[in-house]
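quick q for whoever's on today - can somebody do inverse folding on this one?? i tried earlier but teh output was garbage lol. tokens:
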């Protein structure tokens, strides 16, 4: 659907003498006061002629442009809202914040929750990687990170604020009064916007070839092929803060306007010759002609620049390619700093994948440039430059630098794999895009660097010009989460339960309640639904309660508790029949529940402790609470040290000993986000306007639907029993609390007593006994090494040697000492023309180990042994096989045949 003409015929245009025209290039309608204008003043219909325009000498930096934008709309009744992180952790379908409207999706835009202010204004740092391959090539039109200034109004049926005319008028006043742009230069190009299931007409505001803002009017919901009018109509605008700065400064490229003196500093640090401002400015002016989807247009653009300047095309190619790579590094290092500063942990999945992709693309570019500089040194410059604008960069500086260095080490490891991968591909006629992506995903190998290695082998490797964009697009959205697993119940039972009334949840009213009375709502075999219950259903990583239900004097075991929507289902050990309305008495297994409560509250304590010890980047990646133990998976870029684990454990126990109050409470989700930030969603994003938070006083606040103790002292104490890296960027902590910790300690005592008994000592003397044994072991190793040396020095006297066609065959006796045997084989095969064999009898079989000097390939001997029925093999200079029913002389004869067949 496209908006009809009436959608764009606004009163403000007619009142201010704007005329509707059609662009003579793209044929798109636009509105302008300039009666002579023939095109829409947007690329590719126009060049960037704003670079040559004369106007007010504003010279705004990015910081100044942001401030001017926010202040203008604040003066016009919009409350300034702080931006959210660049990691969209309030969204379960999206990894990165790609626009200011994302801050309010899906709960505010759908009307589930109110906006934090109405109307409001925000300058939101955004990250988009769809066009990552175009960064630098288009001189600033494409960036991976940018700020979107947005003023938003949420119009409800009973509260209408403003709509199209007012929005256009705000844009006109901002550009004319604030930016001192002649109103006749303004153009409002008609457009149509769709995204996130919504749609509406929009205007693109262009001046001098540069699009400065987009004004979107969200008024439809897309349902299949239909556009259904929304009850909530939203003004969704996006002003390009960096573009405002570039427009006022009129620098050679947008990068100069954004980064100022960092541009020259990066050229110097990278050891790359600077590119002349004149060449860059002319190139920028005609950059609108570059179509990233048509690589030939890049060359056509450079040919045009060369013609205008009267210089060689080759020189233009070299200069602009070099500049583009430096601009890429500038852009990417800022984006990396923002990602890491907001808590991204590089990994092979999720948001971490996108972060690592950008890091490796940056390091790949540095390698191509031949720059001898660490990635972290460049990122430090970005932190210093942007620290005042984004305080999280300063706050998390140590982590950002450490994570960058860790990733550089991993990238260096990747580089060592390239020659072997190139060897494996050398005989291939063609390597397709899917295989290149697979090589990148599995080995992290940038195709650009693989291409260099393949060229050395005379093999051409074709790489799509937008390779990294393709990879980024395939990973930019989170997989849709399925409904919680309710496979413990038959599908038809679930369907029947879905339509039942919501269960009254007594476990929230009193988490210490053990018994209750209720009435049957539905009895479906062994699945029982009551009108009220204190049984907690599985959720939030906490297992469902167990206990007993008494019906008509019959006491039945409840083996599990599940939930279908808001209906709690008690799963019984056996089937029953109970009519709706039948009275029942319930009793939970309190010991089991209390252990779960302790472990669940302990998980919140541990998570906050991990953040304080390791840094703000720590994020819950998974959790499970059982009566026996609890586990917490956290994001972190490297293995934990023993000291770090000890600090986490000590901090957690300090909070337990400090008797902090634990308080669950409900709050409007918008208020919760504004007050506590998006870290409340560590355990997941609830789909409600009102959410339940758990507050541990002066320690942690997080959304949680589980059951908890009311004071940290009730946890009793925490012992971390296991720490391991379960996947790239994810560390698992396992721990026990209270009586379970005592059980764990008792098990350790039993193991110590068993060890002490075997060593014929007491637990108290165990360390002394172990120390004595270690000393004795060292003495024995010294004696053993002496014997080995003696045997090695005198081996020629005790081995059987045969001469076969100029080859020395040595038959080594069996010693039962693997280390000695390895050294003997190594020593005896130092000289050329030598084969060493050793036979080890194992029941009716014989193991034959064969070692050869470097000039003899063991494969011919192995081939003869296999002909005789041997199983096993080897290559180059060593093999080990197993033969059935052969004696020593048989084996020697077979080996001799293999030696003769080799023709050495």
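ok took a stab at it. sequence:
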């Amino acid at each position: 659907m496209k908006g009809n003409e009436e959608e764009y015929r606004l009163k403000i245009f007619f009142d201010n003498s704007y005329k509707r025209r059609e662009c003579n290039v793209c044929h798109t309608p636009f509105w302008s006061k300039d009666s002579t204008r023939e095109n829409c003043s947007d690329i590719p219909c126009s060049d960037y002629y704003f670079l040559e325009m004369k106007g007010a000498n504003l010279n705004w930096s990015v910081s100044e442009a942001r401030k001017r934008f926010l202040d203008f709309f604040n003066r016009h009744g919009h409350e300034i809202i702080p931006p959210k992180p660049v990691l969209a952790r309030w969204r379960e379908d999206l990894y990165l914040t790609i626009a200011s409207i994302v801050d309010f999706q899906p709960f505010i835009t759908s009307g589930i929750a109110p906006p934090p202010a109405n109307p409001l204004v925000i300058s939101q740092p955004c990250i988009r990687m769809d066009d990552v391959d175009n960064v630098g090539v288009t001189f600033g039109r494409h960036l991976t990170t940018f700020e979107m200034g947005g003023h938003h109004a949420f119009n409800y049926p009973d509260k209408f604020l403003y709509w199209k005319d007012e929005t256009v008028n705000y844009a006109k006043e901002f550009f004319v009064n604030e930016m001192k742009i002649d109103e006749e230069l303004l153009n409002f190009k008609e457009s149509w916007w769709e995204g996130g299931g919504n749609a509406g007409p929009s205007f693109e505001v262009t001046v001098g070839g540069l699009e400065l803002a987009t004004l979107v009017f969200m008024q439809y919901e897309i349902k299949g092929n239909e556009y259904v009018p929304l009850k909530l109509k939203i003004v969704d605008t996006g002003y390009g803060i960096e573009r405002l700065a570039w427009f006022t400064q009129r620098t050679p490229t947008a990068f100069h306007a954004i980064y100022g003196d960092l541009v020259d500093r990066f050229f110097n640090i990278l050891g790359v010759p600077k590119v002349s401002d004149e060449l860059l400015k002319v190139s920028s002016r005609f950059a609108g002609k570059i179509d990233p989807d048509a690589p030939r247009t890049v060359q056509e653009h450079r040919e045009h620049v060369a013609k205008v300047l009267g210089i060689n095309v080759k020189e233009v190619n070299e200069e602009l390619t070099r500049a583009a790579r430096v601009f890429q590094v500038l852009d990417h290092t800022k984006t990396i700093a923002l990602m890491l500063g907001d808590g991204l942990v590089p990994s092979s999945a999720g948001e971490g994948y996108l972060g690592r992709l950008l890091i490796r693309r940056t390091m790949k570019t540095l390698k191509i440039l031949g720059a001898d500089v660490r990635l972290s040194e460049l990122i430090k410059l970005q932190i210093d430059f942007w620290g005042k604008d984004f305080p999280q960069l300063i706050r998390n500086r140590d982590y950002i630098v450490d994570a960058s260095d860790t990733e550089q080490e991993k990238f260096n490891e990747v580089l060592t794999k390239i020659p072997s991968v190139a060897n494996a591909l050398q005989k291939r006629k063609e390597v397709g895009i899917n295989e290149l992506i697979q090589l990148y995903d599995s080995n992290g190998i940038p195709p650009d660097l693989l291409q260099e290695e393949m060229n050395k082998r005379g093999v051409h490797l074709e790489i799509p010009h937008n390779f990294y964009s393709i990879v980024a697009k395939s990973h930019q959205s989170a997989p849709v989460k399925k409904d919680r697993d309710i496979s413990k119940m038959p599908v038809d039972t679930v369907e029947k339960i879905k339509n039942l009334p919501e269960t009254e949840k007594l476990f929230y009213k009193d988490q210490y309640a053990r018994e209750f009375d209720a009435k049957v709502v539905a009895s479906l075999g062994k699945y029982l639904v009551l009108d009220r219950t204190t049984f907690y259903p599985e959720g939030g990583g906490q297992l469902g309660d167990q206990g007993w239900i008494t019906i008509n004097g019959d006491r039945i075991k409840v083996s599990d508790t599940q939930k279908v929507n808001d209906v709690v289902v008690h799963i019984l050990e056996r089937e029953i029949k109970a009519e709706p309305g039948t009275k029942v008495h319930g009793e939970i297994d309190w010991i089991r529940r209390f252990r779960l409560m302790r472990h669940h509250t302990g998980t919140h304590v541990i998570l906050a402790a991990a953040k304080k010890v390791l840094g703000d980047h720590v994020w819950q990646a998974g959790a499970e609470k059982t009566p026996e133990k609890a586990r917490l998976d956290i994001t972190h870029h490297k293995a934990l040290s023993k000291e770090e684990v000890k600090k986490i454990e000590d901090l957690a126990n300090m909070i337990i000993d400090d008797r902090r109050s634990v308080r669950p409470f409900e709050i409007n989700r918008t208020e919760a986000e504004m007050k506590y930030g998006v870290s409340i969603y560590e355990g997941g994003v609830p789909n409600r306007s009102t959410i339940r938070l758990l507050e541990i006083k002066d320690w942690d606040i997080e959304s949680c639907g589980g059951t908890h103790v009311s004071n940290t002292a009730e946890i009793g104490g925490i012992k971390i029993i296991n720490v391991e890296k379960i996947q790239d960027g994810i560390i698992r902590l396992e721990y026990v609390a209270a009586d379970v910790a005592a059980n764990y300690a008792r098990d350790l005592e039993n193991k110590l007593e068993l060890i002490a008994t075997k060593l014929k000592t007491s637990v108290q003397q165990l360390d002394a006994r172990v120390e004595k044994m270690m000393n004795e072991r060292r003495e024995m190793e010294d004696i053993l090494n002496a014997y080995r040396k003696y045997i090695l020095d005198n081996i020629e006297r005790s081995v059987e040697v045969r001469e076969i066609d100029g080859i020395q065959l040595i038959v080594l006796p069996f010693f039962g000492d693997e280390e000695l045997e390895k050294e003997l084989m190594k020593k005896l095969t130092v000289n050329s023309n030598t084969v060493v064999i050793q036979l080890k009898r194992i029941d009716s079989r014989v193991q034959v180990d064969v070692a050869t000097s470097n000039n003899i390939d063991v494969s011919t001997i192995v081939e003869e042994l296999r002909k005789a029925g041997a199983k096993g093999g080897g290559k180059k200079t060593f093999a080990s096989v197993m033969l059935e029913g052969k004696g020593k002389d048989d084996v020697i004869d077979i080996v001799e045949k293999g030696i003769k067949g080799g023709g050495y």
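fwiw The two ends are 80 Å apart (CA to CA). also The chain has a mean pLDDT of 92. so keep that in mind when u check it
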